[in-house]
Design a protein that fits this description.
The complex is a heterodimer of chains A (433) and B (247). Chain A contains 16 helices and 4 strands. Chain A has a 4-stranded mixed beta sheet with strand order 2-1-3-4, sandwiched between helices. The two termini of chain A are 29 Å apart. The relative contact order of chain A is 0.11. Chain B is built from 8 helices and 10 strands. Chain B is an alpha/beta fold and 247 residues long. In chain B, helix 2 crosses helix 3, helix 3 packs across helix 4 and helix 4 packs parallel to helix 5. The chains are: A mainly alpha (433), B alpha/beta (247). Chains A and B meet through helix 1 and helix 10 of A and strand 6 and helix 2 of B.
């Protein structure tokens, strides 16, 4: 292969790329800006592990001991940011999207929930007013409130004044009941009598000992450990967002190079190039190499920024990171050749490739991680090269996987590059018309 | 210097060029004329190696030209009809690139660039972006790009389209200089007066075939003129190719 012409093509393409201020901004500045935004959104505050609290309004219309305990429990919950507006204000806040969920504790909730706790009494209704666009928050609030309601009700039933009164009121009713089966009646009377005795014993010791916590509690605690590169290394969401955005914009840059090739053909430049004693494969290789160099620069500049500003680190293999970057760059540059080979005209190619790039980066997990996709879609996206690039770069950065984790992404990306090259080399039309 | 023998090229059912043969000697210019669709550009493309002929040969000093990488392609220069230039780059950057395609580098490339821009009168603007050039300057740079590797044969495909009379005249002067240096030139155009001024021999094509090949005087003698004067080349051309529209 002729080296001087090949190098000249690479140098010329780099000159053309850097002479276009718009291309440079779109390829280098825009991905950094967008990745910084996505990184801030998805990293949960970067090194700060404190989760974002869900805004919840609690409207306590009952003001019983139980409802006050529920509100108190919710206020102390690290997952919730509780406000206590009036019912109308709560509705308005949810409607405007300022609050994800409003919990309405209706009048009589404490009494009815206590009765329902021991028997088959009427169950009170806890109303959740929610923003329909925040279904995830609704599910979380439902779970968290279940915990606090169960704790508050059981605590009151096993030690509170309301519980004592309820048992004193309920025992004679059960004993005189004619509708209940004798065995069932005896078991329930025994249980409630034991609870009543527990109250009396507890009252006798309450003056001399530290009061005991009564009622149901969560029977376990949770130790959360993020599985990243190491136990002392926090997940850095910027690593993923910079990988995704850099890949998206280098694909756009390469698609643009493909469109430029079509424009060059229209302008007769390929005729001039082909009149020189150079093989067609050398001309295409020159484009592929220059595209790969530009792609690699976009990736490395983006990650360089992320490392300096957001503390992203290659926790896995540096060689693996470089290997994936080079393979990704080759995949992207040959994708540009594919655009030139399959595009009939610059205008149609531009429209189709914009759609193709957006689909690839969306399905490849460049915008949001693929683990939130349905299972079938996670399997399907394995045919998207961007998925391998993003997963590979994630593996080499915050996941901290060694060189072995880079081998499969590199192999798959190179296979995509080879396929794109083969199609492009066989289908590219060298003359217009 | 350059001999074309029985070239034929078809695109599907359309025969674009059929049994075309002619030659061009050192220090001469052959004007290639024909209406739209006559096969001129396809013929030039085959000579330049852009299109592979179905039949026939292109010979450079008796040696057959074959394949994209044939070193004999160095002896041919192409000045395409389109302004095949990178407008975002300077003239020097353009010429450095086009010269490197012929494996020119270092001092040899610098010298070639200097010679080419001197010839076309762009030395003082060689570092400016091509986008800032006038149409005539771009045409002259287009010519310079085809000359960088000092070819023996220069193919000029309508090199004066859209330029003002001053630039056209400058290009004519350049071509006269090249002829004087012994270059063999093939020149396609629709402007009859250009061929009248520059051509040593004229090839007229129509429907893919050569329908006449002669000197200007020889062609003029084929058409009788009332009063006994010389026919213009345009009247000769219209007599040979007819007056029906070809577009």
């Amino acid at each position: 292969m002729a080296v001087i012409p090949l190098l000249a093509m690479v140098r010329k393409d780099l000159q053309l790329f850097f002479s276009d201020r718009r291309s440079v901004i779109v390829s280098f500045v825009v991905p950094i800006a967008i990745a910084s935004f996505f990184g801030a959104v998805f990293s949960g505050g970067g090194q700060n592990r404190e989760p974002a609290r869900i805004a919840v309004s609690i409207v306590d219309q009952d003001e019983s001991a139980i409802s006050k305990a529920i509100v108190s429990g919710a206020e102390s919950d690290k997952n919730l940011k509780v406000s206590k507006p009036a019912i109308d204000e709560a509705r308005e806040a949810v409607k405007k999207g300022n609050t994800a969920v409003a919990v309405v504790i209706p009048k009589g909730f404490g009494e009815l929930s206590g009765q329902a706790f021991f028997g088959d009494g009427e169950k009170p209704v806890l109303t959740l007013l929610h923003d329909p666009s925040k279904s995830t928050e609704l599910a979380m609030v439902r779970g968290v409130m279940t915990q606090h309601v169960m704790e508050a009700v059981s605590q009151e039933m096993f030690g509170g004044d309301q519980g004592r009164k309820l048992i004193e009121k309920t025992l004679p009713q059960i004993e005189s009941s004619t509708s209940m089966a004798p065995d069932q009646k005896r078991l329930l009377v025994d249980m409630l009598s034991s609870v009543q005795k527990f109250y009396k014993d507890d009252s006798a010791t309450a003056t001399t000992e530290k009061p005991r916590r009564r009622g149901l509690t969560m029977p376990y605690t949770v130790d959360e450990e993020a599985m990243t590169a190491g136990s002392n290394i926090a997940y850095n969401g910027y690593a993923h967002s910079f990988a995704g955005m850099a890949i998206q914009f280098l694909l756009f840059a390469m698609a643009n190079i493909g469109v430029e090739m079509l424009l060059e053909r229209q302008r007769g430049l390929w005729s001039r190039l082909r009149s020189a004693p150079i093989a067609k494969v050398t001309l295409l290789a020159g484009k592929a190499v220059s595209g790969a160099v530009i792609s690699l620069m976009i990736l490395l500049v983006s990650f360089g920024f992320a490392m300096i500003v957001f503390g992203v680190r290659i926790q896995g293999s540096a060689a693996g990171f470089l290997g994936i970057s080079i393979a990704c760059a080759l995949m992207a540059s040959t994708f540009g050749l594919l655009v030139a080979a399959l595009g009939n005209s610059p205008a149609t190619a531009r429209g189709v490739t914009t759609l193709a790039v957006l689909m690839m980066v969306m399905l490849g997990g460049a915008w949001v991680p693929t683990f939130i996709f349905p299972a079938w879609l996670q399997q399907f996206t394995l045919i998207v090269p961007v998925r391998w690039a993003v997963d590979g770069l994630d593996a080499m950065t915050w996941r901290g996987i060694g060189l072995s984790g880079a081998l499969m992404p590199v192999a798959v990306l190179l296979a995509f590059a080879a396929a794109f090259w083969t199609i492009a080399a066989s289908r590219f039309r060298w003359t217009e018309g | 210097m350059l001999t074309i023998q029985h070239l034929r090229k078809s695109f599907g059912p359309l025969v674009a060029v059929d049994d075309v043969s002619f030659g061009v000697e050192r220090g001469t210019l052959v004007g290639l004329l024909g209406p739209n669709g006559a096969g001129k550009t396809t013929t030039v493309s085959m000579i330049a190696g852009l299109t592979t002929p179905d039949k026939g040969d292109v010979l450079v000093e008796g040696a057959r030209l074959s394949g994209d990488t044939d070193p004999k392609k160095r002896r041919i220069g192409l000045v395409p009809q389109d302004l095949a230039l990178y407008e975002e780059l300077s003239a020097r950057a353009n010429l450095r690139f086009f010269g490197a395609l012929y494996s020119l580098s270092g001092g040899a490339l610098d010298k070639a660039i200097g010679n080419a821009v001197d010839l076309v009168g762009l030395s003082d603007r060689v570092n400016d972006r091509v986008a800032t050039y006038s149409g005539g300057m771009k045409r002259r740079l287009n010519l310079a790009a085809g000359l960088l590797h000092d070819p023996d044969v220069l193919l000029l495909d309508e090199p004066t389209v859209g330029v003002d009379p001053q630039s056209r005249n400058a290009i004519f002067d350049n071509l006269e200089t090249l002829k004087a240096r012994g270059k063999a030139l093939i020149y396609t155009t629709h402007y009859m007066e250009e061929v009248e001024r520059l051509a040593d021999r004229i090839v007229v094509m129509d429907h893919g075939r050569v329908i006449a090949e002669d000197t200007l005087e020889g062609l003029q003698s084929r058409v009788a003129v009332v009063g006994g004067g010389k026919a213009t080349l345009e009247s000769v051309f219209l007599t040979l190719t007819g007056r029906s529209l070809r577009d």
